[in-house]
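Figure 2 data, in text form.
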Amino acid sequence: MKRPDRSPVSGTLLRRLAFANIVANAAIVVTGGAVRLTASGLGCPTWPRCTDESYTATAEMGMHGAIEFGNRLLTFVLVLIAGATLLAALAHRPRRRGAVPLALAVVLGIVAQAVIGGITVRTQLHPSIVGIHFVVSMLLLLVAYALWRRVSEPDGPTVPVVPPAVRTLTWLTVVASAAVIVVGVAVTGSGPHAGDADAVRNGLDPQTISQIHADLVFLLVGLTVGLWLALRAVGAPAAAVRAALTLLLVELGQGVIGFVQYFTNLPVLLVGLHMLGSCLVWLATLAVLWSTRERRPADHPPPPTRPATSVPAEPSHPAPTPA
């Protein structure tokens, strides 16, 4: 009997590469924040070159040029990781259904981010373009997370593991989490950390937009508490309950950082931690969403039915004989 060929790429390697995409895309959000927080956004004043004469930063450009150019170099690291993941998804046997399109989407998303980054520089760090740059990063995290979960699951259909009402509450929590991130971008665009001393701001009143952001955070925390209690009440799988509790704890930590940074005039270190927290809140939100369903193997057999127990027949009594 012929032995089937082994896959040139193991499932473990594919999962690790997919997870590396999540880490790398979160890391570049933080390093991009460092560029803005150190006022290095125009350290390389043009794109795709760093200057009109050089693709790399020069000594005359100082620390700002080194920081901005270093962040640009990280894009190539992301492309290498995403490209390796795409090749692994293509080479893995049996090929995982849906993995290749997701891996390709990560590659294309990173390329699009590089272009948006170039537009950001050419528009002198306009807050709308900077905001789009951050939102696309969150979308990339969504695709990278979906890819990681996809290669970690079987190829069968997905089935919900919670009642429809709880599933709806989960989606409301996801929408609230996304709203918090989008409004947080508007808060950033109204604040002092523009990435360059001459960059324009979005013109919104920082106190008003910060209050709207805080209100949405309270809504998100309330929905998360309700979701956690609902999951416990309906006897949801332990993984779903843990995911909701993790999201709640991450939200509370992020909220503490947010309030402290607001009342301490936005120190650079706390703003950087808050950007990392945004990534963690979003990833924790996605974990809750994925925990309310499961993907079963394609050949998953129906649950076994208990064999019917045979009821012993009543003993027959001989008919009485007439006296």
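Caption note: The chain has a mean pLDDT of 88.
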